[in-house]
Amino acid sequence: MPEALKLYHSPASPNSRRVRMFLAEKGISLPLVSIDLAAGEQHGDAYRAINPRRVVPTLVLEDGTAVGEVLAIWRYLEEAYPATPLLGTTPKDKALVTMWERRAELEGFASVMEGVRNAAPRLAGRALAGPHDYAQIPELVERSKHRVANFYGDMDARLAEVPFIAGENFSAADITTLVTVDFATRALNMPIPEESGALRPWYDTVAARPGATA
Asked: Residue 176's domain is classified under what CATH number?
């Protein structure tokens, strides 16, 4: 008998939260298996057999196939559960959601992660997530903060034109942006600047959605 679809995640992992929010917004309920990152459970043999890259989240399909990477997990869930689309419906919408979500991840989320992983003492020798070890580069921490500040400014300008990151509808791009803001606020002490005229109202609206607590 095939196993049930399940998600390996960590409650403290921003990437895991991106997938949990996606599930919540689409109304999908899956078994969640928590991985203790602080205890190094991701480096143990049991989890490495599931995801050799030693990162979360990982979606394990009914046939045992393990799908890593947030975008790949989203794509599977969007195709398997098409109700409440979050990756766009028309070719144009899909392109815009992908474009803006990637900008949010590469210019915002990755900037925060760069600062955190190059500063946290517990991540010494683990400046990049994955199966290989990399030394921290302290000089990147200040650059990451500068990148986050620019990201806030860019998204504030974008949201002065549209109600949601990718346009007229809530999408995965909003999920990544919300998670990025919360991550930057908590990990880098960089909340949305008070002078942001559009980003703050957007944040208040999106953070009030039920899925934001996932």
From this structure: 1.20.1050.10
